[in-house]
Design a protein that fits this description.
The chain is built from 7 helices and 5 strands. By secondary structure, the protein is an alpha/beta fold. The protein is globular.
Length: 182
């Protein structure tokens, strides 16, 4: 493997290393979102048929990855990327039947409560999720036992390594069971 290949397709990310780096660069909006998502997915239990909200999905690379790698149905929600533009990416990637593009503002989501088995946010949560009341708002959209995962670049340690989870981030009961936050 060449030095360049080792940098763009590291062994650490076997799933995302299968994706064309040029394709990913064309959809680029920040640090490698597939590496962030692949790392995050190790802590999630994603299974075929689950309904997943990809919040702050950008141009759609993470939604394609979720659909292809885990067989989940994805709602790709973003405020800045036109749904038609994202839908074109999904169709070209062969997952247009698994991924629905939606224009949505994170503080006024157009979904029914308990609509999703999982909510993921890759390199986006830091833009809209900083208010103390946002996480409880977002948790309303998870089904009982649902999972929430976010990957934000630039953290030097996992939040669970801080010794405590900030109170505004503590799990709350959704229905009869707690969502998995960490």
């Amino acid at each position: 493997m060449t030095a360049l290949n080792e940098r763009v397709r590291p062994d650490r990310y076997p799933r995302s290393s299968q994706y064309d780096p040029a394709w990913l660069l064309d959809l680029d909006m920040g640090p490698n979102p597939l590496w962030l998502l692949e790392d995050l997915a190790h802590d999630l239990d994603l299974r075929p048929g689950m309904r997943v909200l990809d919040l702050g999905s950008g141009k759609g690379a993470t939604s394609v990855f979720l659909a292809r790698e885990y067989g989940v149905e994805v709602v790709a929600a973003d405020l800045w990327i036109a749904p038609e533009q994202a839908a074109q990416v999904f169709a070209q990637a062969g997952v247009g039947d698994q991924v629905e593009a939606v224009r949505a503002e994170a503080h006024a989501l157009p979904f029914e409560e308990q609509s999703f088995d999982a909510i993921v946010s890759v390199d986006a949560f830091e833009y809209f999720g900083t208010a103390d009341n946002f996480l409880p708002y977002l948790l309303r959209f998870l089904r009982p036992g649902g999972q929430l995962g976010m990957a934000t670049p630039a953290m030097t340690r996992e939040i669970r390594e801080l010794g405590m989870i900030p109170s505004q981030c503590s799990p709350r009961t959704v229905g009869n069971s707690s969502p998995s936050l960490w």
